[in-house]
Specification:
- The protein is mainly α.
- Helices cover about 85% and strands about 0% of the residues.
- It has 3 helices and no strands.
- Helix 1 packs antiparallel against helix 2.
- The radius of gyration is 26 Å and the shape is rod-shaped.
Length: about 120
């Protein structure tokens, strides 16, 4: 009977060890994902900012009406991509417990109109 009890205790301990190992693996994978998201959002932001900067220069060079409309569409899409990157970066900060929230006013009508234009 003592052997059976010891055998069950050993089985339980093996299960606990495997569960602890699985938890550690899952936590490591989550940290890797969070770091990947943060790194990628930073890497993507750089060329997007370049596109936005060049679009701004283009818009200040006296374009014809159609070209200006195209450039404004590029600008709007670029700003949207930048917002997505910022959201991804915020997600990685949330997961890392490092997000500080800022309350900012928004114009809901302008937001909806901008979405409609896209």
């Amino acid at each position: 009977m003592a052997e059976t009890l010891q055998s069950k205790e050993a089985d339980i301990q093996r299960h606990i060890d495997r569960l602890n190992e699985s938890v550690n693996d899952a936590q490591a994978a989550n940290r890797a994902k969070t770091e990947f998201l943060a790194n990628m959002s930073h890497e993507i932001r750089t060329p997007i900012n370049g596109v936005l900067g060049m679009t701004e220069l283009l818009l200040h060079n006296g374009l014809d009406e159609e070209s200006e409309r195209f450039a404004r569409a590029i600008e709007s899409s670029g700003r949207t991509l930048l917002a997505v990157c910022n959201d991804i970066l915020d997600l990685s900060r949330i997961e890392a417990g490092q997000l500080d929230l800022d309350l900012i006013p928004i114009d809901l009508r302008e937001l909806v109109e901008d979405m409609g234009e896209m």
